């Protein structure tokens, strides 16, 4: 399990085409990818299971806890990204609610774009 940050402070100011915004790069893949938005309500749980393919969890809002193959939970919040390798056991839960983007693909390499947290 690896932790990354995609918050505004890790982004780059874009001014091309008279633009004025910050872009935090997350991932690029040449492999097929499944991308979804996950909503955990109060006391929501993604049960303990093995990742079928490499998986990247991007917390958009709310907060929760994740764990890998040990019983130690780590708090995650908006701007945090968690990466699990193929076959890695993991779980996500939230007492208050959490919204996240989930990207699953054999071609994930988050360290190419995001800084480790």
From TrEMBL:
It comes from the Bacteria. InterPro entries: Cupin_2 (IPR013096), RmlC-like_jellyroll (IPR014710), RmlC_Cupin_sf (IPR011051). Pfam families: Cupin_2. Coiled coil: none annotated. Gene3D superfamilies: Jelly Rolls. Residues 49-98 form the Cupin type-2 domain. SUPFAM superfamilies: RmlC-like cupins. This is Cupin. It comes from Ureibacillus sinduriensis BLB-1 = JCM 15800.
């Amino acid at each position: 399990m690896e932790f990354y940050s995609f918050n505004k402070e890790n982004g780059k100011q874009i001014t091309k085409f008279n633009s004025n915004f910050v872009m935090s790069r997350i991932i690029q893949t040449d492999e097929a990818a499944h991308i979804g938005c996950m909503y955990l309500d109060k006391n929501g749980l993604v049960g303990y299971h093995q990742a079928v393919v490499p998986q990247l969890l991007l917390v958009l809002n709310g907060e929760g806890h994740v764990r890998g193959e040990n019983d130690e939970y780590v708090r995650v919040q908006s701007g945090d990204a968690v990466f699990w390798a193929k076959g890695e056991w993991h779980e996500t839960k939230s007492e208050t609610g959490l919204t996240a983007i989930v990207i699953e693909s054999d071609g994930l390499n988050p360290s190419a774009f995001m800084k480790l947290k």
